[in-house]
Give the backbone structure.
Amino acid sequence: MLKDITLGQYFPGNSVLHKLDPRMKIFLIIIYIVTIFAANNPLSFVLVLASAFVLMLISKIPAKLILRGLKAVFFIMAFTAVINIFWTSGEHLLLDLGIVKIYMEGITYAVFMIVRVISLIIGTSVLLTYTTSPIALTDGLERVLAPLKVLHIPVHEFSMMMTIALRFIPTLIEETDKIISAQKARGADFNSGNLMQRAKALIPVMVPLFVSAFHRADELAIAMECRCYRGGEGRTRMTQLHYQSQDIVMLIVMLSFMAVVIALNFIF
Amino acid sequence: MEHQYIIEANNLCFSYKTEDGGAFPVIKNLSFAIEKGSFVAILGHNGSGKSTLAKLCNMILTPDSGTLVVGGVDVTRNDLSEDDIYQLRRQIGMVFQNPDNQLVATIVEEDIAFGPENLGIPPKEIRARVDDALRAVNMTEFARHSPTQLSGGQKQRIAIAGIIAMLPDCIIFDESTAMLDPIGRAEVMETIERLNREKGITVLLITHYMDEAIRADRVIVMNQGEIFLDDTPRRVFSKVDQLKSVGLDVPQVTDLVNRLRTDAGFSIPADILHSAEAVEVLKTLYQQKKLRIDREEK
């Protein structure tokens, strides 16, 4: 039951995007987001939207999956669109309803905003979340943020915490399942009553779960100490990341795309 | 100078602090020496101090008094540096009871690499060590799996591989089979024996399964923080009454043979550990008896 939860949204595959270096993907995402927000004329928006779909095709992720992700933010999109339509003022008045005036600019703005959000969602999901396993993502983040260690930001510790969390989520889910079954066998009722009663019924699940999680943490700490763990200092890594030619190509493509979009701003 | 013993303890004492400020002695004046390359089982019922002993051996706990010499280095001296402790922990690996609570990474080979990574080994060598360790526990095909996809015995073998990759001289197994099903236990025991035989790794097996202890070269029985018996399995298990007095059982076969001796008065050897031996003994006994009956009938 609870076991079916997939961690993150990683969709295993073999596309170029899957094979990119996680560090490069983080840089690409930043460039892509800047590009999306730099766009301010119809032609660049068409380009941005088209690029999102191209990325989707390259990633070979089923469109259905990505559309499901879009559905989740449908409300935000609708809300932004409505606000933009009613609250933007401009020169070309389309409709005057007394207090509410709808301008041509408002509608254009709303459309632009929707295109932005759609490209953002598709772009980030196919570039990062759908094509990068959580572990690769953590790893990439640790390495990208490594320079921050100079500022005494515990980058290694954060990434270690992430790794351990990812490692233990399935274990704890399994345990929750067991505790729920055990409490059900003792006559606990989780499925009736109002919200308050249901929340209360979960206390006998949470308490043993927390106790066991602390116990596990203690044992894990000792086991890690026994394996000579002493923080990030002096630590080496087995897997070394190297930028491949595909990473460089993607970077060049993405940078040129940004240049084109920014250049279009000056033309229009 | 090459030392004959991997671990030498002299008059070790350790007590846990109780809540009211007192001290509860767990290890009392313990002295023993573990020979390099040997396979030693430590038996004892709950609270006999056997797990505490294991934790003392790699300085997870510090003894109150006494000396502990590991690989020729006194690890109880006052000026011990942190590096010395890490060196000690590299030499004396430890595998615990719950396989889930020892694995750190989400991919098997990444987990095995964890120890060597901590030691600052160059990446290429880590790769080689990980591959070796996977082979040593027969888990090569699972290198890219997630630990959650594995059975208990398999997870425990990965935990062992994680220790092997640090190239230890000695591995302490702290009830490492206690949470496994019979198949998992057999897998892990087989791996442990192979490591001892083929890689010459000293094994300290803390267990409460008698059938695991009989596979060792030497059995130490602990009782209330002291060594109660220390001998070969054969001689230890022939002392059935003494073992029972400290709340331990003997292997079923030994128990059967012992009862035949004491209760039924048969003259058979007391130091029988394996069922195959018992079968032989009972066969001869049966034939002798049959001969006697045949003779009487004539």
Remarks:
- Residues 1-6 of chain A have pLDDT under 50 and may be disordered.
- The first helix of chain A runs from residue 16 to 19.
- Strands of chain A lie at 93-97, 100-103.
- Chain A has two domains: 2-146+242-267, 147-226.
